[in-house]
Amino acid sequence: MYVGIDVGTSTVKAAAFDSTGRQLAVASRPVELSMHGGFVEQDMDEVYSAVVAVLDELTAATPAPIELAGLTAQGDGVWLVDKTGRPVHPAVSWMDGRAHELLDQWLADGTFETVFRRTGSAMFPGCPGPVLAWFEAHEPKALDTAAHALFCKDMVFHRLTGAPPSTDVSDASMPFLDPKTRSYDNGVVELLGLTRRRRLLAPISDPVGTAEARGEGLPAGTRIANGPYDLPACALGAGVTEPGDGLLIVGTCLASLVATTDLDLSGEPAGLYISLDRPGHWLRAMPAMVGTAALDWVLSTTGVRHEEVDALLTATPPGANGVRVLPYFAPSGERAPFVEPRLRAELTGVSLESTPADLIRATCEGIGYAARHCLEAAGLTGSLAVCGGGTRSPAWMRLLADVLGRPLRVVEGEVGARGAVLAAAERYGVPLDAAVWTRPTEVIEPDTGRAAYYAKGYEDHLARLNTARGRERQPDRRPSHTRPR
Description:
By secondary structure, the protein is an alpha+beta fold. The protein has helices at residues 44-61, 100-109, 111-119, 128-138, 140-145, 152-161, 169-172, 186-191, 230-237, 292-302, 309-313, 356-378, 394-404, 415-428, 434-437, 448-472; strands at 2-7, 11-17, 23-30, 34-36, 39-42, 68-73, 79-81, 91-92, 148-150, 167-168, 177-178, 183-184, 204-205, 209-212, 223-226, 246-250, 254-260, 272-275, 282-288, 324-326, 346-348, 384-387, 408-410, 442-444. The strands form seven sheets. It has a seven-stranded mixed β-sheet with strand order 18-19-17-16-22-23-24, with helices on both faces. A six-stranded mixed β-sheet has the order 3-2-1-6-15-14, with helices on both faces. Strand 16 and strand 17 (254-260) form a beta hairpin. Helix 1 crosses helix 6 (152-161), helix 9 (230-237) crosses helix 14 and helix 12 (356-378) crosses helix 16 (448-472). It starts with a strand and ends in a 13-residue tail after the last helix.
C-alpha cells in the first residue's frame, strides 16, 4: 500500500493506493482559516493534529503494510517555527494580504520586475518575500524568535520524522530561488531588505528530502518523501510531464500549469517558474488567487447548496442573461496572469430579474475566463488535464470545456496525494507505472457553437478586466495593514 498526504488550505487529506494506482481509501479533516482585516492565518498545531488524525483513520481502515508515503501541501505563506519545530507565530497563509502596500511600493520602484527577471517569480502579497519584509517592519520580534521560515509541508515533515528542517526546489521557487543554479539568490534576499534574516530560509533538499516516520500517524520506520508542494504534485498526479501539456486545478486556488523546458524571463512579470526534481524542467505556473472559493462565496450569499449547482447551471443560458462576474474575490487581489494587489471582484448586469442561477452561472463563466487567460499566458500548446474539487460538478466541467474551447482530460480522486506518491516512488527507486496511475477518468469535448460564443465572451472579459485594473491602480486612502487590535 502507498499513502499520499495532501495538507490543503482548508482540508487535510490522506489517501491509500494499491500498486496500480487504484485509490483504496481516503480520510479527511477540515482546518480553520482565520481571516481578519486582510490577515489570513492558520494554527500550525491544528494543521499537524489533523494530519495525524487522518493518517490514524486511514491506516486503521486499510491495515496493509505501507510501502512508502509521499507528502505534499499548500505552498507559499510563511510558517515560522523555533529550533524544535514548534510555532512562534500563527502560520501566514498564501491568501494573506497584509503586505499589499509593500508590493505596491515594489511594483512602483522596479523591485518587483527585478526579482522576476532574476528568479521567474512574480511576487504577490502572500508569498514569503513580502510577508517576511512585513514582519521585519512591523513584528521583528517574531523573526528574532524564529529559527526557520518554513512552508506547510516542511513543518509537517519535520514533526512526522524529526528530520532537520528543510524544503525542496518547488517550494523554494517563490521568490528567492535562482531557477538556473537551483540555489537561493542572495541578491534577491538583499534587494528585499532581508539580508539579516537570510538564516531563516530553510536548506534546500535537491531532490526532495526523505526520512522515516517516528510513529505518529504512520508506523515508525515508514519511508516518506517531502514534496513537491501541491501544484507540481498535482501535475505529476495528472500525468502532465511533457513540454506544452497543461493542468488546470479547479480548487480553492485556480491554478494553471504548463510543463516546459524553456526558461523565458522576458515579457510581463506574472506567475512563476516552479523548479522540479528534474533539472532543466519547470512548470510555468499561473496560480490565480480564487477558484472554487469564489463560487462558495456566491453560494453562501444566495443560500444555494452545492448539490443544486448542476441543475442551476442548466437553468440559465450561456451568458447568464447578461450577468457578468470578474471573479477576483481574494483580499490580497490577484497574482496571475498579472499582479494587482488592489483588484476586487465585480458583478455587473444584475437586476431585479436576475436569479440565483444567473449569478452562479456568471461566476462559473468568470472563473472559466480567468482560467483561459492564465493558460494562454502559461503557454499551453498540448493537451489539458483538469482536477480539483470543481470536477465533482459535471455541468461545470462541460461549461469549462466550452469556455476554454478545448477537450478536458478529467482526472478525479486525490490527484495531489497521487502525485506525492509518484514523487516518493521516484525518489526511492520504486517502479510504478505512471501512465496507469494517471489515466484520466473521462475526456469532455467542447460544444462547437457554445465554444464560439464564449470566444467572443472572453474578449469582453479581457476588456472589462483592463478597465477594472486601470481603476484599481488609482491611489486610495485605505489604512496600512498593521495587526488588528
